[in-house]
Amino acid sequence: MNSWEELRKQARKLENDIDVKLTCLSKLGTGSHGLKSSESDTEPLLSADHMIESTASEIESLLVKLSDTNEKMSDIMAEGGKDAAAIHTLQRHKEILEDYKKELNKTINNIQSRKDREQLMHSVRKDIDSYKNSTSKLNRRMDMYLKENEHIRASDRLVQDQIQIVLDTREHLTSQRQHLKRLHTRLHDISSKFPLLTSLIPRIT
């Protein structure tokens, strides 16, 4: 059976190891673990999941060992022969254990919250990109429709212009026929008054 001093040293070593691992886990959770991606200065949290899970598992294992060590120290304490300082030391080790458990849970929750935010942001960016693409396609389609509409309007104006030319020509021809008819009538009247001009009318008309 380990002595009180050996257990105390073991507890201190476990506490130091846990403290280092918790610091490492916290850095992993914030992306400050020295890794770099091609798009940013820090590695995205989603790509470091395996490192986070591994570190958290190691911390949990160390916490179990620390808890066992504290239990062994409690057993020695129950046998008696320890002063108030030893009692205070054991109590302090138990408090540190509880603090580390709380810190681990807090860190894991923070990491999960950050992971959820990154997933949400990724989803939002994806939706925005999709919207931009659909908007771009819609704009191109609208441009095509506008050009087609302008082409139709131009064709319509051309047809209207041609119709107007035909109407103007028809009106002009009608006016000419009326003018010639009036002229023919006058010549006929003149020939009636002047028979000698009868022979000239066919030549004129």
From TrEMBL:
Tell me the protein family, please: Belongs to the GOSR1 family.
Q: Where in the cell is it found?
A: Golgi apparatus membrane
A GO BP entry is: vesicle fusion
Q: Which UniProt keywords apply?
A: Coiled coil, Golgi apparatus, Membrane, Protein transport, Receptor, Transmembrane, Transmembrane helix, Transport
Q: How does it sit in the membrane?
A: Single-pass type IV membrane protein
InterPro entries reported for this sequence:
Golgi_SNAP_su1
Its taxonomic placement starts with:
Eukaryota, Metazoa, Ecdysozoa, Arthropoda, Hexapoda
A Pfam cross-reference name = V-SNARE_C
Give the protein's recorded name.
Answer: Golgi SNAP receptor complex member 1
Molecular function (GO) terms for this protein are: SNAP receptor activity
Q: Tell me where it mainly resides.
A: Golgi
Instruction: Tell me a GO cellular component.
Output: cis-Golgi network
- Coiled-coil-forming residues are 90-121
